[in-house]
From TrEMBL:
An example Gene Ontology CC term for this record: membrane
GO molecular function: purine nucleobase transmembrane transporter activity; purine nucleoside transmembrane transporter activity
Superkingdom in the source lineage: Eukaryota
Name used for this protein in its record: Probable purine permease
Protein's UniProt keywords contain Acyltransferase: no
Native species: Heracleum sosnowskyi
Subcellular localization(s) per the UniProt record: Membrane
InterPro entries documented for this protein: EmrE-like (IPR037185), PUP_plant (IPR030182)
Coiled coil: none
Membrane protein topology class: Multi-pass membrane protein
Transmembrane portions of the chain: 21-41, 53-76, 96-115, 127-145, 152-172, 184-205, 226-243, 263-284, 291-310, 322-339
């Protein structure tokens, strides 16, 4: 690892531990809201008469102006409270903008795969399939950012992967009314594809931070997320034009089960919740790692599952029960390993050894 990067790393983390801990906690809470609310709201759109997949995928990033509001608030805070009169709203260099464009396009593709999957699957099924994302995140984190693993984290990844694989058994019993087996299986495949792609995107964002060649702080993280979501939106907007979604939206709103006003309210809520996910995700990766963000996403699986069963009266077969137990077992294994890791002498922790 170069001396230049080590110096930048030191400067990047030159904050009080309490500030970073508070930022991590807030990011986790914001990520939890977005991670649980987004699939529920997206499925709500499809349940009540929505059927535009490109529109739904666009909503997963179209709320990016909300990040701009966060950036403005952060800028005001730094100038008023920290006395940083030199702070600017936009600081990203061209190198990072290019990286953000690449990640943004990949995010747009992942959003489409996810939207397609959730249009065909019950939420309680789709979130269990998404749990497989952790295995992909772990693998790519190892390859891209040299993530260190303990036996506990490996066990967690294996259990979560097996848990999501159990859903392949007797899938037809969970198929929504009026949907063919082919559509259901395609929904599973598309959701799994989205999980794999997002498992690559999370470590790629962390790698972008590491290779930035400029000091990474929270305002810069938000700016990167702004560009990522902006270009993901542009990607989905092209798809909407090709698919004539803009012409169909007014008619779909009139035919929506809950009326025109609530139709547009659902679209706005979907866009906002997705940005909670984006902001929380960026914060967790910045404060900790892409692997932890993947773990948190997986940890929230039971919450989303229970909410889907309660709100949408979805079925809960034995396969989902087995997958849920394996997932919870994996969560416990990971966090037990983290506790054991934190109790080790600092010099003997695997993460204390920098890879070259």
């Amino acid at each position: 690892m170069s001396v230049e990067f080590l110096n930048m790393e030191k400067e990047t983390h030159d904050q009080s531990p309490s500030v970073r801990k508070a930022l991590l906690i807030v990011s986790c809470i914001v990520l939890a809201i977005g991670n649980c609310g987004t699939p529920l709201m997206t499925r709500f759109y499809f349940i009540h008469g929505g059927n535009r997949i490109w529109l739904s995928s666009c909503l997963l990033s179209a709320g990016w102006p909300f990040i701009l509001v966060v950036m403005i608030i952060t800028l005001y805070y730094r100038r008023a409270t920290m006395g940083d009169s030199t702070a600017k709203l936009f600081n990203v260099k061209p190198r990072l903008i290019f990286a953000s464009i690449v990640v943004g396009i990949l995010t747009g593709v992942g959003n489409y795969l996810y939207a397609y999957g959730i249009s065909k699957l019950p939420v309680s099924t789709s979130v269990l399939v998404v749990a497989s994302q952790l295995a992909f995140t772990a693998g790519f984190a190892f390859l891209l950012v040299k993530q260190k693993f303990s036996p506990f984290s490996i066990n967690a990844v294996v259990l979560l992967t097996i848990g999501s694989g159990v859903l392949a058994l007797h899938t037809s019993s969970d198929r929504p009314d009026g949907e063919s087996k082919r559509e259901y299986i395609l929904g599973l495949v598309m959701t799994l594809g989205a999980s794999a792609l997002w498992g690559f995107i999370l470590p790629l964002i962390e790698l972008t931070y590491q290779k930035a060649k400029q000091v990474i702080d929270f305002p810069l993280v938000m700016e990167i997320q702004l560009y990522i979501n902006l270009f993901a939106t542009l990607f989905s907007t092209v798809g909407m034009f090709i698919n004539n979604d803009f012409k169909v939206i007014p008619r779909e709103a009139r035919n929506f089960d809950l009326g025109v006003t609530r139709y547009y309210a659902v679209l706005v809520c979907s866009g906002m919740l997705s940005q909670f996910f984006a902001i929380g995700l960026g914060g967790v990766i910045f404060c900790a790692s892409s692997l932890l963000s993947g773990i948190i996403i997986a940890v929230l699986l039971p919450v989303t599952e229970v909410l889907a069963i309660i709100l949408y009266k979805e079925k809960f077969q034995a396969e989902k029960g087995v997958a849920l137990v394996l997932s919870l077992w994996g969560f416990v294994s990971f966090f037990y390993g983290e506790i054991k890791h934190s109790q080790m002498p600092k010099g003997s922790r695997p993460s204390d050894v920098l890879s070259t």
